[in-house]
Design a protein that fits this description.
Layout lengths: L3 E4 L2 E4 L4 E7 L11 E7 L6 E6 L5 E3 L7 E5 L5 E5 L8 E8 L11 E2 L3 E6 L1
Parallel strand pairs: 2-11
Antiparallel strand pairs: 1-3, 3-8, 4-5, 4-9, 5-6, 7-8, 9-10, 9-11
Length: 123
């Protein structure tokens, strides 16, 4: 069973918004309440990039590409969200949710991954 399930991707015009969701399941479910969780993305031909993370204690961290446009959050059911505003064509990528039972994101290696959801932004 896939430990993390993403949804919410799609096609949008530049300047638009999308909200991605990530639901914990399978082996990761028991860790979700205290785990470090985060969003990553990978575009064709590029390295995987960290977008944002939230620690078990609620501390958030953002990569440079996400600052001022994207917001990570986690609800009481441990569903992880990524609100993406003012989207740009360069945001086009496969977006992945990841988790680590280690609550501190500073030391996380993210052994749990979802299968990804595609985001395509047209000019």
């Amino acid at each position: 069973q896939v430990p993390l399930v993403e949804s919410g991707g799609g096609s949008v015009q530049a300047g638009g918004s999308l909200r991605l969701s990530c639901v914990a399941s399978g082996d990761f479910l028991i860790h979700a309440s205290y785990a470090c969780m985060g969003w990553f993305r990978q575009a064709p031909g590029k390295e995987r990039e960290k977008i944002a993370t939230v620690s078990g204690g609620g501390q958030m961290s953002y990569g440079d590409s996400a600052k001022d446009r994207f917001t990570i959050s986690k609800d009481a059911k441990n569903t992880l969200y990524l609100q993406m505003n003012r989207l740009k064509p360069e945001d086009t990528a496969m977006y992945y949710c990841a988790g680590d039972p280690l609550g501190s994101c500073a030391l996380a290696s993210f052994p749990y991954w979802g299968q990804g959801t595609q985001v395509t932004v047209s000019a």
